[in-house]
Every structure is written in structure tokens, then in C-alpha cells.
Amino acid sequence: MNSTVEKYIAGLKNAYINRNAEKYWQHFEDIKHGASNEAIEKIREIYPDVPSSLLNLLSFVDGTYYRKYAGEEITFYLLGSDVEKYPYYLLSCEQIIKNQNFDKEYYSEYVERENEEVEIDDRIINNSKALKWLHFSDCMNNGGTSQLFIDFSPSAKGNYGQVVRFLHDPDSIIVIGDNFEDYLNYLVDTQYGFIEEDDFD
Questions:
Q1: How many beta carbons lie within 10 A of that of residue 76, not counting itself?
Q2: What pLDDT score does 116 carry?
Q3: The model's pTM
Q4: Which of 21, 89, 106, 131 could share a disulfide with 16, CB 3.0–4.6 Å?
Q5: Where are any strands of DSSP class E within the chain?
Q6: CB-hemisphere CA count at 13 Å for 8?
Q7: What is d(CA 92, CA 147) in angstroms, rounded to the nearest whole number?
Q8: Mean pLDDT (the chain, rounded)
């Protein structure tokens, strides 16, 4: 497993324990499983440059967003963003594959800069036809408030594979990591601030 992913998972476990939520983490570890090789290969077919660190994370757990394990449907906070104290779920391989056209269906008008009130990072392309994002995470509000993507179609100012965050009301699309490992390291450096003790009372 990628060393960044190993560090991230170990730190996340400690964050749950330190916030008096060890039983939640333990139950998660007891029932979850990683993605199959077939599912991983299907993602590679659709996104040939998918970062190995994301695949490693999916090999650890194949999604935490209304995902069934051992007959139990779970929603488990695994990720965060630059939006403070706001947790996100990891989508499963099946959900990532299903959402492969999500970017063009929902964000074409945004990237074309048709609404001047929406803040769009200049590292994001302005050509919706060339848009190629991998949707890997939805926020705690069933994805309606925020989603996370890996961007394989950056502008000349951006980085191939950068992590993009959409946030609703006020709407904005911002780059929050130059790549997926940079994004994970940001969550480590900010001490997994999306995990709050009050969530488990």
C-alpha cells in the first residue's frame, strides 16, 4: 500500500479514537472490505491515470456512502476538504463508475463561466467538452452541498490530477490539492478536523 495512504489511515483511526469514537471505527473495520480487482481494473479502464493512492484507499474500503457490508448499510466519514468541520464519504467503485459523466451533466455551465456569481478557480478549464473529472467523494449532506473530484483536464495554470472541490451556496469550484496525495497530506496536516466528537454522542 502507498505510504501516504498508510499514514492517512493510521492517522484517521487515531482521530476517531482520540475523539471518543473508537467503537465506531472498530465496527467499521470489522465489517468493511476493499474493492475487488475487477472493480479496480474497471476504474483503470475509464480513468487510465487514476492515482494509485486512490486505488489503494478503495482497496482498503470499497466506499463508505450508503454502502452495504455484511448486510449492513453504512455511511462513514472517511474524508474532508478545506471546508472546516465538514466530513465526506468515499464513493465505492460502483458509484465512481456510475458517475463517470457526472462532471459534464452538472458542471458544464459552471466551467464555461456562464454565471459570473460562481467562483471558479483559474486552474480549472473553461471548455466543458474537454472536461474529465473523477467523482470520488460526496459530503455529509448526501452530496447536495459539496463533492470532490480528481481533475484530468486542468487549465494551463493547473496540475493534471489536481483535486477539485465544489461547494454550494455560495457556489464555488476550487482546487484544494495539486494531486490526490497532496490532498490526503492536507487532511493529515489539519489533524482530520472533519471528525468531531459531537458527531458520536
A1: 20
A2: 78
A3: 0.96
A4: 21
A5: 65-69, 72-75, 88-90, 119-120, 133-139, 146-151, 162-167, 172-177
A6: 21
A7: 14
A8: 94
